[in-house]
Structure formats: C-alpha cells, structure tokens
Amino acid sequence: MPVIFFEGPKLPLEKKAEMIKGFTEVANGVLPRIPKEAFVVILKENHIDNVGVGGELLSVMKKRHREEAG
Amino acid sequence: MPVIFFEGPKLPLEKKAEMIKGFTEVANGVLPRIPKEAFVVILKENHIDNVGVGGELLSVMKKRHREEAG
Amino acid sequence: MPVIFFEGPKLPLEKKAEMIKGFTEVANGVLPRIPKEAFVVILKENHIDNVGVGGELLSVMKKRHREEAG
Amino acid sequence: MPVIFFEGPKLPLEKKAEMIKGFTEVANGVLPRIPKEAFVVILKENHIDNVGVGGELLSVMKKRHREEAG
Amino acid sequence: MPVIFFEGPKLPLEKKAEMIKGFTEVANGVLPRIPKEAFVVILKENHIDNVGVGGELLSVMKKRHREEAG
Amino acid sequence: MPVIFFEGPKLPLEKKAEMIKGFTEVANGVLPRIPKEAFVVILKENHIDNVGVGGELLSVMKKRHREEAG
Question: What number is the ipTM of this complex?
Fold first, then answer.
C-alpha cells in the first residue's frame, strides 16, 4: 500500500531495478509489519528541459557548466 | 477544481474516455454541489519498466509469471 | 498496483468510503485483468486556504459568493 | 528545497524557460529567506488524450469546439 | 485546467494569496489562450519533520544551523 | 534536484529520519554524480481513513482484521 515516487533523470534498466529494490528494502525495513509485496515504487523520468533549478532550465545549466569547464 | 490522478498502465483511447467519465461521475456523485465541469482527471501512464511491486520491476515480474505459466 | 489520487475538499467518513469504492469499481471495470485488491486510492483533503482558482484563494472566493448572494 | 509541479499542456522550450523563471521568482519573492538555488520546478506535459474536464476527454472537447466554431 | 502544486513550508494566509496570485499570473502569461479561471493552484504545506535534504531531516538541519550560529 | 515522495502511514520521528536517510543513500548510490545535498525527500503521512485498498477504507479493513483475529 505505501507508494514511493522518484522524480529524477532518465535511467537505464539496471539502475531502475536497483532503485526500486533499494527503496523497497529501506521502506520495508522501517515498516516491517507491512508485507513487502504491498510496497509500490513509481519512477518518473523527467527530461532536463522540464526541470528548473534556481529559475534556470537544467538543460541550460548543464550546457553552461560544460562550457565553463571548457 | 477537484483533481483526480490515475497512475496506471498505458491505455487505449476508449479506455481513457471510460476512465475519465467514470471517475468524474463518481466524484460528482459524492460532491453534487460542485459543478461537473470543475472536475479534472489526469491519467498518468507508466511504462512497466518504471514500476516496482515488492521491490521487483513490474516488467520482470510479468516476464517471470509468463514463464511460470509456461 | 494502480494508484488513484483525489485532490479535493475535506470529506466526512461515509463520503470517503463512497469515493474509494466508486473509483476502485470504475478503474477495475476498465482494467478487469488487474485484481481488485491491487487498486489503491489516496484521498488528499485540501483546506480552502490552500487552493486557488483563477488566481484567487478558494476561501476568499467562497466568502465573496456568499456576500454577493446576500 | 521547495518544489513546484506544473501539470499542463506540451510547451515549446522558450515557454518552459519562461514558466520556470517566473514560478521561481514568485516563490522566492514570497519566501526570500530560502536561497533561490533551492527552488526546483518540474514541468509535467500531459497529452490531451490523458486529460479530462467535466468527464470528457480534452482532445474530444477541443475537436467539438473546433467543429462548433465551424 | 492546468494545475500547479507547491510543495513547501507552512505559510501565513497573506503569503498563500500572494503565491497563488503570482503562480497564476505567470502560468496565464505563458499560456494566454487558456482562460485565467481554468488555472488551479494547490499549496502543500510540509512540516519540517517530513522533509529531508541530503539525507538529513530539515528540522535537524535547522537546529544544527542555529546551534552553529550560536 | 531529484525528489522522492513517500506516501504511507504516520511515522514517529526516528522512523522518519531512518526513511529519509535510507532513501537518500539508495538514490545517491544509483546516481553518484549528483551531489548528496541535491536529494530531497518528502514524507506524506496519510490517515487510514484517507486510504483505500481494493475499494475498502484501510481503517475499515484493519478493524475487520482485528475482529477476525478475535
């Protein structure tokens, strides 16, 4: 019944599996009386054009950082 | 003004229409003083690689079930 | 595994039960191959000071409507 | 640390940047003691087949309006 | 129909009004063809015991900062 | 910048700290290039009258289970 949402970047399949396994173990460790099968994880992959940090597009920020690192 | 989110699998268009109509009728039936036009439904279709149940990827679980069913 | 969120007003207990039963029946009707026990509904009750419509607080809008209605 | 989610239509890149900049300025204006870099905005672009208003698919409603407008 | 969620700290009423007005003006400025009345804002006030940054409770982090500022 | 939401039951403070620490370590382990301080966790505690499983209120289900257990 508990549901965990992860809002983050796009992930390859093996990292998705790792994230889901890890979150479920953490949550089930904290709440051991809820059966493991009841934990649901939903991964939300956001494109860097759809995320802003400090008012700036993440895609623009990353480009800027790359250029500064030159 | 009330907003209903559905986190589930990918759906064909006619099932989307059915889901939206049904949710709105239920919610408006419970809250008849709110005009029907004020109810918003947003369907969130999640890929089975982005959902985990019991710590396992839904895509892996489905594959396993198919193999067990042989 | 599907999860339905309802963002709306505060509700008495019998209306919560009605909403949860109705949403589950609709969703399970559209997706009959998913067992009924797998559907989760989470009701989010929002105070009218925390909701805005058209840029105005819902609590202010309701007060205004009551005054206009005399 | 505050997070703003926008559930709306698909947007071109320059409108995404404008939305993210504007939301962050508003939120940081209201909460000036939280540093600007701590504000996160996530834009959720929903297809008009996944949104319902008044129990009707937004895509169907738009089509109907266009036909009525002739 | 667009919905804006703000996940942040508890706010006094006048700051809620300011936040809702500001978000709506920004979103309606970016999407002028959607009528202003269609924009919904929902403020989610989170207790500092329910938010973590960098793996640490916000309430613990704030206490630590106060002590360090001592 | 990644944000993790946990929708679950009410938790005592030490379990909140444990949940937040654990989720952040898992997510940062999967995404080691994102600095730890950028991970945000928001715990959403839901009353058992606001959650439904299989169309039934969680509070009703728990009461029934207790009665069946005698």
Answer: 0.97
